Task: structure prediction
Amino acid sequence: AGFLTSKDENFYYFVQEHISDAFLCIFKDKKPALFLSPLEELKSKTFDVIKPKDFFLEILALCKKNNVQTMGINESKCSVALQKRLNIPTQDIGTDLLQLRAKKTKGEAQIMREGCRITTDIMNSLFEKLKMTAFKTEADVKRYLKKATIDKDCEISFEPIVGSGKNGAIPHYYGNAKLDSGFLVIDFGIKYKGYC
Result:
């Protein structure tokens, strides 16, 4: 069996929903179980949706029912405290998850192409605004990138880096200087439907 927390990007890969404080148990030859807070609402034909009073009592009961001897976990995303609460021997499946996700389906490739198109649109609109000197500081450029991303129903994949003039030579620069003439270095990316 496999166990993922909603804090793990692999959780989104399987569930295709952003959910807080949830767990996914994947069993061989059985429908996966999605454990949600009573505050969450999700209807699914793919998963058995369970809203337990105590997550771990229910997870352990389901594991016992399915005769689970070892639980596969992504050790890099599953705390030691969480592993102890599972109270089942565990095995790291982090590498297996990476290999599974490495090969993209046609649908995933299409999502990634669309994300690239959206990023290009945002950058092209930024270049047009830069020509009109619409920005005074590096922070103005960052704000524009963030707002344009939200306007396209996407998320920022990481905090944008904007460095003008000599600041562009500083790796991972995070200042807020006045825009300087010369080079403008921008490190920017979006997250579209779970893909960066």
About this structure: The chain is about 40% helix and 15% strand. Residues 101 and 141 are 33 Å apart (CA to CA).
